[in-house]
Design goal:
121 residues, alpha/beta, Rossmann fold, four-stranded parallel β-sheet, 3 helices, globular
């Protein structure tokens, strides 16, 4: 079983743990990896997977996110979480264990919210 680290810039060494990680940098890499190898044992999510996603002004990371905004043409970690939930339902497998390491506060909240809700099902 593998562990998956989703981040466009950092690598898994920032986690400083003993797990063996495979890193993916985008929504497409995330989907391809899980489709090919099945769900990992553990996932660490980043939210911002493109330069356009990063907050540009003070307080922006705390505002509600409009995922229909053109800056989300490139999908975020939130989109990865939504895809994973649907994939696990379709394949009738449990969600892997997970954490969110994103520094984007609202993005972190959004991923955490959908993953917690899906874990209750």
């Amino acid at each position: 079983m593998y562990n998956l680290f989703l981040d466009d810039e950092r690598d898994s060494r920032c986690l400083q743990d003993t797990k063996t990680w495979e890193t993916v940098r985008s929504y497409n890499e995330f989907v391809d990896k899980i489709t090919k190898d099945g769900p990992p044992g553990f996932i660490s999510f980043d939210h911002d997977l493109d330069d356009a996603h990063y907050p540009k002004e003070p307080g922006e990371a705390l505002r509600e996110i409009d995922y229909n905004h053109p800056k989300y043409k490139v999908k975020s970690g939130y989109h990865c979480a939504l895809w994973l939930i649907e994939y696990c339902k379709k394949m009738n497998v449990p969600l892997p264990k997970w954490q969110v390491h994103s520094m984007h506060m609202t993005g972190r909240y959004n991923i955490t919210k959908v993953m917690r809700e899906a874990s209750k099902i």
